[in-house]
Automatic annotation (TrEMBL):
Residues 2-238 form the ABC transporter domain. Belongs to the ABC transporter superfamily. AI-2 autoinducer porter (TC 3.A.1.2.8) family. Signal peptide: none annotated. The keyword Ubl conjugation does not apply. This is Sugar ABC transporter ATP-binding protein. Keywords: ATP-binding, Nucleotide-binding, Plasmid. Pfam families: ABC_tran.
Length: 245
């Protein structure tokens, strides 16, 4: 469904992503695992139209996809939840969840349906109650994280990219987000799950790609390698230190 082929991205002298090739399949949770600085955020930005590759190609449904702005990616069904929580602090929770959606589906959601639509999106996964009429900026970070997740879910994306999104959440909400991810995959969505947490990876993923120093060092089905082998591929030095300890 989605392929990146020899995709590279440099920032000046720094090669953030180097000739990365990965095939992503619809209906799977595909985890991208890598240490800090391995290029995960750059990969997310490349697949959200925030930065453009210096080389290589993105293919969607077998055809080259030449989107070069976030709106191009959103139009074809990508939605990204970034590591940094991006909200409009003075707008209500409902407004934040529906932000930009009216324009995208080219008709306004009727006033009386707005709260209902926002509540339904949150209701798919949020265990913690999030007050729909509150100013989003007045709520704790965990609630804000739920809001940006709902903003992505309400768009019914074909490709949902989640960049380290569970860090701020408490246990119940985190488990519920994981359950939603499995449900969306079962409905045919491709989920790209970006993390450095091995415990989350094994229970959630269908496929795993490992990034190290901007290179894709491995893509395989979950369960083929043990967590220890994955750690070795992701961070050989840390793995060696752990085995010496
Ligand atoms: N805007 C930028 N300008 C210069 N260098 C950058 C920029 N963004 C990222 N880099 C560099 O590119 C490399 C990959 O960074 P990236 O943020 O993609 O890694 P990451 O795996 O997401 O790390 P983290 O988990 O810390 O966010 C790093 O060496 C980083 O310093």
């Amino acid at each position: 469904m989605l392929e990146i082929e020899n995709v590279s991205k440099r920032y000046g002298e720094t090669v953030a992503i180097s000739e990365a090739t990965i095939t992503f399949r619809a209906g799977t949770v595909h985890t991208i695992l890598g240490e800090n600085g391995s290029g995960k955020s750059t990969m997310v930005k490349l697949l959200s139209g925030i930065v453009q590759p210096d080389g290589g190609m993105i293919r969607l449904d077998g055809r080259p996809f030449a989107g070069n702005a976030p709106a191009d990616f959103q139009r074809v069904g990508f939605a990204t939840v970034f590591q940094e929580v991006l909200i409009a602090p003075d707008r209500t929770v409902t407004d934040n969840i529906l932000l930009g959606l009216d324009g995208l589906i080219s008709r306004r959601i009727p006033r009386d349906k707005r709260r209902e639509t926002a509540a339904a999106a949150l209701g798919r996964f949020a265990v913690t109650e999030v007050p729909l009429d509150a100013a989003a900026g007045s709520l704790p970070l965990a609630a804000q994280q739920l809001i940006v997740l709902a903003r992505a879910v309400v768009r019914k994306p074909r490709i949902l990219i989640l960049d380290e999104v569970t860090a701020a959440l408490d246990y119940a909400d985190r488990e519920s987000v994981f359950k939603l991810m499995r449900q969306l995959a079962a409905e045919g969505c491709l989920l790209l799950f970006i993390t450095h947490r091995m415990d989350e990876v094994m229970s959630l993923s269908d496929r795993i790609s490992i990034l190290r120093g901007g290179k894709v060092v491995k893509t395989e089905d979950c369960g083929v390698s043990t967590p220890a082998d994955l750690l070795k591929a992701m961070a050989p030095q840390t793995a060696a230190e752990l085995s010496d300890a």
